[in-house]
Specification:
Blueprint: E1 2-6, E2 10-14, H1 16-23, H2 25-28, H3 50-70, H4 76-87, H5 101-105, H6 111-121, H7 123-131, H8 136-143, H9 159-172, H10 181-187, E3 188-190, E4 196-199, H11 203-221, H12 224-244, H13 251-260, H14 268-280, H15 286-296, E5 302-309, H16 317-326, E6 334-342, E7 349-353, E8 356-358, E9 374-382, H17 387-394
Parallel strand pairs: 4-7
Antiparallel strand pairs: 1-2, 3-4, 5-9, 6-9, 7-8
Helix pairs in contact: 3-4, 3-9, 4-8, 9-11, 10-11, 12-14, 12-15
Length: about 400
C-alpha cells in the first residue's frame, strides 16, 4: 500500500495496481494540467492540477463504494472497478482543459473520447492492465453508462463534482463550494437512468451541493475575466498550431500519438513553449505576436456586453457583433460567447421519505425547487485597445 497526502481529504491509500497507474507517464501528465485552466489569472491560488483532483475523486469513490458494498448493492469486484474508473476519469484532458477542448469538439474529439482511447491503447497502461488482469471493457462500460453504478462517476451528484467543487473553492479562496461531504455521501444513493435518491434527512446537504454548484459556476467557472482569457487562448492556440504543427488538428494523428507514447508531453507547459517559439519565429505574423504578448502580459480581451439570465437570452449577439464591425472594430478583435449551462435536473431527484419515493414537486418546501435549472450567459469581448470604442458603440 502507498499513502499520498491530499490537502482536501488527508491521506489517500493506493494499492499496487493503483500506484503503478499513477506512476505511469500518461497519468503523470495530469500534474502539468491545471484543474481550473486560467483561473489563476484572477485567483492566484488556483494552481492545483488534474492530478490532485483525480486522486480526490478516487478517494470519494472509495467512500461511496464502501457504503454501497456494505449495503449489499455492489460486490468487491465492482468496487474495484469503480475505484479504477474514478482514478482514470480525467486521463484524457486536453492542455488547459476546457479552454482548448472546444477546438477539438469541432473534430468530434472530446476529452472523454480521448480518455477511452488512452485507456485502450496507451502502451504502459496496457501492460499494467494485463499484469493485473484488469477488464478494460468493464471500465469503459461504466463511462458509457452501461452499469447500474455508472452514476457514481457521471451524474448530477457524482464524485467528480463533489471533489472539484470543494477543491476549487479551497484553491480560489471563493468560499462558495464548501460541502458537507460526509452527510451528502451518507444520505444519497443512485438509481436507474441517472436518478439521484436522497433520504429526506439529507435534503439540506443536497441543497448545499446545488447552491454551491450554482455559485461556483458564477464566481469561478464562468467568471467574465477567466472566460475571456480562455476564449483568447483558444483563438491564439488555433493560429499557433496551424503555423507550427497543423497535424494536431487531425484526430488520427492524436490517436497515433497515444499509441506511440508522445501524447504524455502534451500539457499546459507544451502550449506555453509553442507560444514562446512563435514569438521568436520571424514567420509568425505581427498581429499574432501581439496577441501572444497581450495574453502573457495579462492584457486580454474585456467584456463590452453581458447578459446573464435564468431565462432565455433576449439579445441576439450576432446583431451586436455586426454593429461593432460596421463601426470599424475588426472581426478578429471581437469574441462573442453564448452558452446554456445546466445546473440541476430536478426530474432526476427522488426523495425517500418514510419508505416512499417522492419527486420535488411532492414536497411542501425545499430550496431545490427554487434553484434555477439553467444559467444562460451571453457576452461579447473585444481586444482591450478597442474596449472604450466598443462600449460607446453598444451604448
Amino acid at each position: 500500500m502507498k499513502k499520498v497526502f491530499d490537502e482536501i481529504h488527508g491521506y489517500i491509500t493506493l494499492n499496487d495496481l493503483e500506484t503503478k497507474i499513477i506512476d505511469s507517464p500518461v497519468f503523470q501528465r495530469l500534474r502539468r494540467i491545471k484543474q481550473t485552466s486560467l483561473a489563476y489569472l484572477v485567483y492566484p491560488g488556483a494552481m492545483h492540477t488534474r492530478f490532485s483532483h483525480s486522486l480526490g475523486t478516487f478517494y470519494l469513490s472509495q467512500k461511496v463504494g464502501e457504503k454501497l458494498q456494505q449495503s449489499g448493492i455492489i460486490t468487491s469486484e465492482e468496487l474495484n472497478l469503480i475505484r479504477l474508473s474514478s482514478l482514470l476519469h480525467d486521463i484524457g484532458q486536453f492542455p488547459f482543459s476546457h479552454a482548448i477542448e472546444p477546438l477539438y469538439l469541432q473534430l468530434n474529439l472530446s476529452n472523454k473520447i480521448l480518455r477511452d482511447e488512452i485507456i485502450r491503447n496507451d502502451g504502459e497502461l496496457k501492460e499494467i492492465f494485463e499484469e493485473y488482469s484488469v477488464d478494460v471493457g468493464k471500465i469503459l462500460q461504466i463511462y458509457n453508462g452501461d452499469n447500474s453504478f455508472s452514476s457514481i462517476i457521471d451524474s448530477d451528484v457524482d464524485v467528480d463534482r463533489m471533489d472539484y467543487l470543494i477543491r476549487d473553492s479551497r484553491h480560489t479562496g471563493v468560499q462558495l463550494g464548501n460541502l458537507d461531504l460526509e452527510r451528502l455521501i451518507d444520505t444519497i444513493s443512485y438509481g436507474e437512468d441517472g436518478n439521484i435518491i436522497v433520504l429526506e434527512k439529507g435534503l439540506y446537504s443536497l441543497e448545499n451541493f446545488y447552491i454551491s454548484r450554482l455559485h461556483m459556476y458564477q464566481a469561478v467557472y464562468y467568471h467574465k475575466t477567466i472566460l475571456g482569457y480562455e476564449i483568447y487562448l483558444r483563438h491564439i492556440f488555433k493560429q499557433v498550431v496551424e503555423l507550427c504543427c497543423p497535424e494536431l488538428f487531425n484526430t488520427s494523428y492524436i490517436k497515433k500519438s497515444v499509441n506511440e507514447g508522445s501524447l504524455v508531453y502534451w500539457d499546459d507547459e507544451w502550449v506555453f513553449s509553442k507560444l514562446y517559439e512563435a514569438l521568436s519565429d520571424y514567420n509568425t505574423p505581427d498581429n499574432l505576436k501581439l496577441q501572444i504578448k497581450n495574453f502573457l502580459n495579462r492584457n486580454g480581451p474585456k467584456v463590452v456586453f453581458e447578459e446573464v439570465t435564468f431565462d432565455k437570452l433576449t439579445t441576439p449577439l450576432e446583431e451586436l457583433v455586426s454593429k461593432l464591425e460596421r463601426y470599424g472594430i475588426p472581426r478578429d478583435a471581437i469574441f462573442p460567447f453564448e452558452e446554456k449551462i445546466k445546473i440541476i435536473d430536478k426530474s432526476k431527484i427522488k426523495v425517500l421519505s418514510k419508505g416512499k419515493y417522492k419527486s420535488l414537486r411532492d414536497l411542501s418546501s425545499t430550496l431545490l425547487k427554487s434553484i434555477p435549472e439553467y444559467i444562460n450567459i451571453g457576452r461579447i469581448y473585444v481586444d482591450y485597445k478597442f474596449v472604450n470604442r466598443a462600449r460607446d458603440i453598444l451604448s
